[in-house]
Amino acid sequence: MLSQVGSTSQKQKVGELSLFTMSDDKILDVVYATHVHDDDSFDVDSMLLVVENIIKRSSLIVDNIVQGTQFHTETIDEKPPKASFSSPLCTLKSVCCELSCKPPGEEFAHKSTLGILNKLSKYSWDAKAVLTLAAFALDYGDFWLLAQLNQSDQALAKSLAILRRVPVLLKPVDLQNRRQEVVELNSLIKATLQVTQIIFELEKLTSYDPKDVPALSQAMDHTPVDVYWAILTIVACSTKINILTSEEDKPHDLSPYAQKIHYILNKLKIHLIICKKQIEEAENYRKLRKLFRTPTEIMEIFKALIFTKDNVQPIIDGSTSTMVTIDVLRKTNVLFFISSLDVTEEDISILIPVYEATKNDNRYNIVWIPIVEQWTEELKKKFEDLRTKMPWYVVQYFSPIAGIKYIKEEWHFKGKPTVVVMNPQGKVENLNALHLIRVWGMKVFPFNKTAEETISNDKNWIGLVFNSVDPIIQTWIKEDKYILFYGGKDNDWIQQFTKKATALVYDSIIKEAKISIELFCVGKTAKAEEDLGTIGRFWTGIESLFFTKAHKQVDQVTQEILKLLSYKNESGWALLSKGSTVVVAGHGFTIIKVVEELEKWKEIVKEKGFELVFKEYYSKVIQSVHHCSRLDIPRVAGKVPETVNCPECLRTMEAFISYKCCHIDGPANAHY
């Protein structure tokens, strides 16, 4: 719905509604009926240049005569139209007829606007606005040119001025009384020119691929309504001039038109800024894609990734808090730490050992690139606080970075921290090494694909994940003990399992068989705000492991990780290991059944061994218990695989999209 800006002094109606309370849809229905097709042959660009020149010069004359300023029209920088441009004079005069000598009021203005639209039916929407403004400028410029010449002794100018009723307005008494009205009129004409200019500029942007400028379609959908209001305002201004140059003093308030046109102007300015930003991002995106196809030097890549055009700035050396040139990155391997300002101290701490190990090696550097769409003073303060916690290089660039589209689309950045590893030639060695670093640390330095492939065959993932949860687990692993890990979202299930598992551990037959089992509960709740707690570290480690293996051939370790990850949001789960080797991992319903039915299988332990008996009974139970497997993968964590096979039956899992909000600062996370 258009904003209501009508005044109580103007209550003439169009049908049952005031123009200023009519909806966009209702106006669209009316104006679309006047539109036939677009005539692309008309030179809108040249016509708009001529109109701009006339209105700018006329506005200066108004200021000089009415307000006593001393601006010289010679100082205006004019752009000439094309030499081949020919003014459609007959069309302009026809439009002038619809503008001239109309009585005040919304109904008459609306009727004249529709008359103009019908006469300009074959022109594009931006051309309709430009031609109407040109017809108005024909009289408006003529009037003020004569007003200027009237002050000289040119007899012809004086005579023409009399016919134009210039002296009526310029009488000292009348001019004094009507000065404010003339100033407001002049201001409204300039605002309407701006609206027309932006409509024309947006029309020119339609030459770009719509995928590059998604915001443009919304602006263009509204163009007919904006053109209607621009023409209506021109009609109202023409009527106001007629009143000001007559002996009558008819009421004709332009304030509702001014409010409406300024509302449209502000809206169009925002649309134009967004569209230009999207175009710049698209152009930078194509530039970066070209650079990465033929990489040459990492510093050139960095410049194109961060800075727009020639606006290259120094970066901060976090170890000394001093500014240094980007030359420090030349011919080095760089770990780009990319994040929003919601990055946590734990995220930062993951890179500290890497920094400590490489700070004296001039072949390696770490650079933090903060991703911020719109900087504010509050965000700048938050940035300052965060950068003091980072001893490595920091990009301080309080504008959206040039390569933001590339980072989001090609590097799959969705808000969560990521580490992109790049060699001195600007070639990406790893799109997100943060998962590797989080799980293996410096064991996989320098975090390229070769190092990742080497370590991916390591089957000791139990120790890797659980060591960050509790160091005692490494001791149990070294002692090759059985460890029963368990957790879940249902506290009652956890209490039941703890009771039954404890009974298993201390059962006389199990003890007699010299089976040593340690119990480890991974927390009692699963809340996102506990990122620094046991549960947060555990599941973050599991997810990181998943992403290091997600795009590789599925092996036994990947299946084990997938299975455990599928239990993340279940009421209960458990995993039995022998040292670092997984014996079995299962849903809470199945594992608790195995444990509580201990009496049915414990007698066989001495004969077959605890591990084999446990696995066999679990296989028997799982055949009688059916449940659907669900795998929640945070989209913000990296590139999500297009398909995932079920960790239980190996069928391709169905994909759904769900949304999650934990009511804390930062964007809601989308999950599959």
UniProtKB/TrEMBL annotation:
It comes from the Eukaryota. InterPro entries: SEO_C, SEO_N, SEOA. GO terms for biological process: phloem development. Residues 23-295 form the Sieve element occlusion N-terminal domain. Residues 452-663 form the Sieve element occlusion C-terminal domain. Gene3D superfamilies: Glutaredoxin (3.40.30.10). This is Sieve element occlusion. It holds the Pfam family SEO_C.
